[in-house]
From TrEMBL:
Homodimer. It is found in: Secreted, Extracellular space, Apoplast. This is Dirigent protein. Pfam families: Dirigent (PF03018). It comes from Populus trichocarpa. It comes from the Eukaryota.
Length: 196
């Protein structure tokens, strides 16, 4: 029992450390591109943070990991720093998905993720195909605030698909084009001009 607890504490510590390590991995050396790499955990609770809005019409039934073809689903899910839903919430994922395969496992998703990281506030928008039980890459199509002009991708992979709350690990790979820096410098300059 004590050993299990010890292992659990170690795992939690490692998770926390890996978040700190990855979240601070910000580079600007490669071709002048600034980038940010980190992972968060998205928790979705059926009929609490995610709802079927329109029922699907064919294929698989409503199950733990499947929904009928054409199902329209909407969600507003918290994203935390570790896989434990009680850990710190640093982002919110708002979006919708439509089941796009007859086996009920794939869908097309659109989401806005509002991020409150230590040094970056704003949102990114993602769009793309997702898979309910396998890892999937989603292109980042843009952002707002400190994420203005970002590109890159996020990878979602299932962590826990049992029970009413399902958890996905979301790994972010964000890249700022060189003109994003100029834009924000210019922006601050204009701001100062107005104040003085
Ligand atoms: C969620 O709500 C719908 C509609 O009220 C209901 O049919 C369904 O059984 C609920 N699902 C769960 C898992 O509670
Ligand atoms: C999650 O964290 C809370 C608060 O720190 C703790 O009480 C709980 O045991 C943890 N749950 C799991 C499943 O590890």
């Amino acid at each position: 029992m004590a050993q299990i607890l010890h292992l659990y504490l170690l795992a939690t510590l490692l998770l926390a450390l890996s978040f700190k390590a990855t979240s601070s991995s910000r580079h600007s050396g490669n071709n002048g591109l600034k980038s940010l790499h980190f992972a968060l955990y998205q928790h979705e609770t059926i009929n609490k943070t995610g709802y079927i809005i329109v029922n699907g019409v064919a294929g698989a039934g409503v199950g733990q990991t499947t929904t009928p073809f054409g199902t329209l689903f909407a969600f507003q899910d918290p994203m935390t720093v570790t896989a434990n839903i009680s850990s710190k919430v640093v982002a919110i994922a708002e979006g919708t998905s439509i089941t796009s395969s007859f086996d009920g496992l794939r869908s097309i998703s659109i989401a806005k993720i509002t991020l409150r990281l230590k040094n970056h506030m704003g949102s990114i928008s993602i769009v793309g195909g997702t898979h309910n039980i396998k890892p999937a890459d989603h292109p980042v199509v843009g952002g707002t605030g400190d994420f203005m002009f970002v590109q890159g991708y996020v990878t979602s992979s299932p962590v826990d698909l049992q029970g009413l709350t399902v958890t996905y690990k979301i790994v972010f790979h964000l890249y700022w084009p060189s003109y994003a820096n100029k834009f924000s410098l210019h922006d601050k300059h204009v701001g100062n001009d107005i104040i003085t």
